[in-house]
Each structure stands twice: as structure tokens, then as C-alpha cells.
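User: Hey, my collaborator sent me this sequence without any context and asked if I could get a structure. I don't really work with proteins. Can you help?
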Amino acid sequence: MKKKRFFKKAFITLTLIAALLGYYAWQIEPHWVRFDQLKLPIKNLPENLEGKTLIQISDIHIGNYVDKDFIINNFEKVGNMHADIIVYTGDFVRLVDNTLPLGDLDEVMQLAPRGKLQTLAILGNHDYGRAFKDGAAADSITTLLKKYRVTVLRNESLQINGLHIYGMDDYWGTNFDPIKTMQNYSNKQANLVLCHNPDVADLDVWNGYQGWILSGHTHAGQVRIPFWGSPIIPVSNKNYDQGMKKLSGNRTLYINRGLGHSIPIRFNARPEIAIFTLTKA
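Assistant: No problem. I've predicted the 3D structure and written it out in C-alpha cell form, which is a compact way to encode the shape of the chain:
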């Protein structure tokens, strides 16, 4: 009889714990944003950019899983920080019944924060629509972003007060051309690369690049088992899960966990907005 009571209590306790963890992963952590503050040391950084702020926002995934008000609320918080440069590193949408949610994205981007010096973006795989191969979908998102003064880098670079920022189109999309992106790279300049999918770091396409690469895509796996990691990460190199990674060739990769989510669950992988302070390397 005592054993029966013990197992009954244990079952009820475990059921309650599982229910609480499920509620936390479904309703709390996906909306519990971390504002991570980091130094971004850049070789040859001009003095007029030292101490300036660059904010990275990634993977907002506007669609049926991410609450628009959640994104808008965090956009407002970023706007109040008055960053000098803001970069969006891809995956603006998630398809809803195989349809691009352009109306919802338009509503959100009207309130998107912009940098005092520049606002940049690159595209992610979800921005290429169904099977990540719809070039017209990517073009539509590019047009929408430009309407709100967001400069979209598609295998091209742009200079901001002496800082050269290179933006690669998405690895899984139809317009990926890293050779073109990096063709004018010079190590005598101040440089930074935006690249949605961190797997690109392992390709032989960098033209001798040394410096930082800001990426997203992984969401840190969204569910991370303590002391073990995530069972599912959408990259070939499973080391590329989240945060800072030192790479060969004097490169540093930063993998943003993203603000939105591709499934409505996060556990031990809180959403993130990265706030970088530019410094001389």
C-alpha cells in the first residue's frame, strides 16, 4: 500500500513538473528576450566609429507562430537605444499555408528601428519561400524592406564612415554568390561580414578575409538539453549552434539565437538581440 502511494505521488509530481516545463517552453521562454552586450573589435576601425553601437536583430520569422506585438514591442525597445548601425541578418518571414505573409511583415517593418548612420539587412532561407527556392519571394521582401529605408545587401558591400560591411545572400537560396561578395575585400580596410547561415564559414570562399562574421539561422536549436546541447540544429557543422566561435584564418563567427522562432517552443535557448560596441582590434 505504501509503495502504491509512493508511485502515485511520484507520478503526480513528475506530471506537474512536465506540465510546468512545457508551459515555460511554450509561453515564457520564447518571449523572454536577452539583450546581450558584446565588444566588436575591428582591425583598422576609423576613430570616428570607435565606441559606436551596432545592434544585430535576426530571424524575426513573421508568420503564424510569432506574435507581431512581441516583435513590435522589442523593436520599440531597440529604437529607444538609438543605435548607430542596425543589421538584420535574415529570415524575416515564415510561410503561412505556403503563402508569404507580406502584409504582416509590412505592418511590422513600419515600426522597425533604424540606425542613426545606417540600417542594413541580408536575406535568410525562409525569405526564399517554399523549399527556399522562390527567387520572386526574396525579391518581394527586398522591395518591402527598401520601402522602409532598410538597405538589403545581396552579395554586395557598403561603406559606412570607413567601415566596409559585406552582405551575402542566403546559402540555401537561389542567389548565393560569396565569391562576388568578397571580391573587393582588402585587409587594409575595416571590415565586417553579414551571413545568415553559419555553415558558409567552412566554405573556401573568403578571399583571405580576417575579422568578424555575424550570422543567425540556428535559433540555438530552440531546445537545448542542459549539459548536452540541442538534438536538432539546422547546420552541417554542429559546433555552430550559438554565440561566439573562433575560426581559422583569424576569423570570429557570432551566431545570434534570433528574436523569433520557427516552432513555438524554446527551452534553454532564449531569444536574443545582440548589442555590439565597436572597438579597434
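In plain terms: The chain has five helices and twelve strands. You can pass these C-alpha cells on to your collaborator as they are.
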